[in-house]
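dumping this here so i dont lose it
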């Protein structure tokens, strides 16, 4: 890939430089409605893939004459398969330290077993079987809550804006590179269209207060828009859960606030459980 992250696929900084400055390539393959692959013969032999599919500016379309005139062939690929391949490519590149200059890979991951066990119990009672439909976990951090989903037989897509957290879990083999990605959650609808997920989940997404509510509101609304059926969000306080419930109600969700307090009194104490109301 020319770009170094999913988020760069929105602004296309490297692709723009290639278009402006030129690049020595000897042949190309057009990916219909997706982008173009350029064959670079030297100093090493490789293919460079450019795509503007997720950008609001279809700059490759404008440069079609420059790249496409000598295309060896044109192929059609499934857009869902293409996005899945992108997610895995960037996850593997992150894990293998191709996208950063320094890494704290010696750090150990410590997952509190009691919290995972509590989440398993919570999910078992409040998340319906997804069947063949995927589920999405937002703000997954280092994948602690992801482990509860895995134990219940789910294979979630899991994402966070902190690449180091996800990288560490990938290095330890605790997250699936085919379903783990780095992105600002507010940008999720730029990559996923419609409602492709059975459920969207977020665990300890706060602390939410008046000073940062607009930020979290954008995240939760963007994530919720991708769910066909269910939402499950855990927070520290009842006040946070009530705030989320009111916003989701305005967005067309029915739901409830669940008291999930325990003696530890820190994680996942309150839960918003949402169901999409029939139109």
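and the seq i came up w/
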């Amino acid at each position: 890939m020319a770009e170094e992250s999913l988020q760069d696929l929105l602004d296309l900084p490297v692709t723009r430089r290639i278009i402006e400055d030129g690049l020595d390539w000897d042949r190309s393959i057009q990916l219909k409605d997706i982008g173009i692959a350029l064959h670079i013969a030297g100093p090493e032999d490789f293919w460079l893939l450019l795509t503007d599919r997720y950008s609001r500016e279809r700059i490759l379309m404008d440069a079609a004459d420059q790249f496409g005139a000598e295309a060896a062939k044109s192929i059609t690929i499934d857009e869902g398969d293409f996005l899945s391949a992108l997610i895995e490519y960037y996850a593997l590149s992150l894990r293998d330290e191709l996208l950063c200059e320094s890494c704290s890979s010696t750090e150990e991951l410590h997952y509190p077993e009691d919290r995972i066990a509590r989440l398993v119990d919570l999910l078992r009672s409040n998340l319906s079987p997804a069947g063949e439909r995927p589920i999405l976990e937002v703000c997954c951090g280092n994948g602690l809550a992801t482990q509860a989903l895995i134990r219940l037989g789910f294979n979630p897509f899991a994402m966070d804006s902190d690449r180091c957290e996800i990288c560490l879990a990938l290095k330890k083999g605790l997250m699936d590179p085919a379903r783990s990605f780095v992105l600002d959650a507010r940008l999720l609808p730029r990559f996923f269209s419609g409602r492709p997920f059975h459920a969207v989940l977020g665990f300890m997404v706060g602390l939410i207060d008046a000073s940062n509510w607009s930020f979290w509101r954008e995240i939760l609304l963007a994530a919720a828009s991708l769910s066909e059926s269910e939402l499950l969000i855990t927070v520290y306080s009842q006040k946070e859960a009530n705030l989320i419930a009111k916003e989701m109600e305005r967005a067309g969700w029915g739901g409830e606030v669940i008291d999930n307090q325990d003696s530890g009194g820190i994680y996942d104490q309150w839960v918003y459980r949402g169901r999409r109301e029939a139109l």
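The mean pLDDT is 92.
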